[in-house]
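pinging the channel bc i need a second pair of eyes. not urgent but kinda urgent?? the chain im working w is below, pasted from the shared doc
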Amino acid sequence: MSSPQSVRIDPAPTLGHRKAVMSLTDPHLTTLADHFGIARDYHDWKGQYIEVEEATVIAVLAGLGIDASTPELAEQACREVANRTWRRVLPGIVVLREGQEGRVDVHVNAGEWVDVHIICEDGHHRGCWQVDNWNPDRRVEGRWIGEATFGIPADLPLGYHTIVATTADHRATSTLVVSPNWLGLPRSMGSSRVWGHAVQLYSTRSRGSWGMGDLADLADLSTWAATQGADYMLVNPLHASQVASPIEPSPYLPCSRLFLNPLYVRPEIIPEFSDLDSYECSKARSAQAHAAATTETIDRDRSWDSKLPVLEAVHALGLEGSRELSYQAFRRLRGTRLVDLATWCALTEVYGNDWHEWPEGFQRPSNRAVSEFVRAHEDRVDFFMWLQWIADQQLSAAQSAGRDAGMSLGLICDMAVGVSGAGADAWMLGKLFADGVSVGSPPDAFNQAGQEWGQPPMRPDMLADMAYQPFREMVRAALRHAGGIRIDHILGLFRLWWVPAGLGPCMGTYIRYDHEAMVGILALEAYRAGALVVGEDLGTVEPWVRTYLRERGIMGTSVLWFENGEDGHPLAPEQWREYAMSSVTTHDLPPTTGYLAGDHVEVRNELGLLTESLEHERAEAARQTETWIGILRARGVLEGDDPSEEEIVLAMHRMLTQTPAKVLNVTLTDAVGDRRTQNLPGTTNEYPNWRVPLSHPDGSPMWLEEVFTDERAARLSGVMNEK
């Protein structure tokens, strides 16, 4: 630790996947790309080798705060990046698996004495020991820095611990995570197979809801599903949305993944609602009738505008006794994040939904102008905090309803892959998100033009610097009242497709994330919650990723239409994965009756989303359907020469029960014979995505009360109970 070392950056480890081999024109760009995990090449969904263009790499680096727009700046950035690790005593986080002995590098002034130990969650101290490290000292910003390596005991308990490094005049800390090697099935589920429904809650309306499905509907739906033999209810992301028009319809583009969507609150079941006087109750009934009057599409703005004055009236009544104590406990639990979310909500009512367009003084929660705003609008900020508490209580009641009716898991809550760049999380956690890039996906079978989702990606370097605290909070929030969590696009814990602004999805590239850290934290949070974890691993997937998830005890996702072997032919049910949530369809496809009819081809053609000819796509869809009908007959689950759509749907689900999958899933749309597509990937306003109500087979809207007595749904439940 005494002599200088030349500047270098070690390439990111391959970690079991194929290492990039292409070199960019500028070697410094190559170095920077490898350091930050930016793919320089990849294979697309058809197996074709694609080289990433230099402009893409430069734009992605800019999103990471690195200016490499000229060779000189790229060289300068290399020198700066090479010294980053040496500037801090400890890394932001160290993640180990249970029983794994670890190592941590410590950087202090050359020749300086340092003591390193662990403080466990329970307060116990554990010592670390120095191990050999022959890396030479490095001169950084005018001083010599030495690197020492310390061993971390292998017998630490699961949890979040603290690494402490102490010198004569300095104390530094870092987060140490010890996660389970294997998550597996939660105790409540045991080793048995389970099945459940998947529902888009907003679309599932009762006669008592306010134009869109809500948490009271979710409780009733879960109770019904339990009586049908279901063990869980998979529900779309319930993350927070805007509270001022226009409200984003997609539950997969929330303003915050840390909190709940108040649009799902049912005012009438708030205990204080009964204290409203007769006039306010009459206004509430009229408002509900107005909100429910539109049945053709889900109108979130209409629903919220009708519901908001009623919620304000209930809030104005105040709280008493244990209710006030409960609210204050919730505020303490959610801390400053809750205050920030409520402040963002109040600010949007004044300045609009995009914080980038607010006066400069309000563009960061730490600004003095924001504190002054909170003091001046104390009651309004309290209103939005109270709304989160009410939503939390009603979600808890929905979970209890399903469990009390016999479900082993209850709710499985979906966690979106990202958030709106204009939203609350981006405002609260600004430095966490990359600038000038968006999350998306490359061209694939879902959308042959690729997708750009309008979500700023989290920066891997900032996640590490922040000890993954925001990610921990997101997972914890999703599991707070649930027996399981579905991670939408779980591939995003490994790599994400970043699309530079203005270049389009085809000009994006993959960015690596520390999957060992992210999956480890996910597994630890789920273990502590006693929850099931399902990863949506569809799309362009590196083979090793599915193997890795299986080895960590995390479920994958299997969809009948896409379960094909290397020869392109459908896999026999016996060859499906055991550790997967298996279904016939998914929310990004039409319901099965619509898919059988080729609705997806016709709609995509009308909107210009096909890259192959219409005739080719029609023929391919017809061939796929005929292939599956032949398979169903061969398996003995479909009889007759001219089966009805329902008979085919029942047969497909009966075949699901012949797979080894531990978790089977039925969409509510398939249960009732709905054929309308909820979401058409790659579109925004061209198609009414996320605004399609649950419907009868003839396309007319279907009330939740009708689901409860629907014979078709009962027949499909009977098939699933044959498992």
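so The first helix runs from residue 27 to 35. and The CA atoms of residues 47 and 399 lie 43 Å apart. — does that match what u expected or am i reading it wrong
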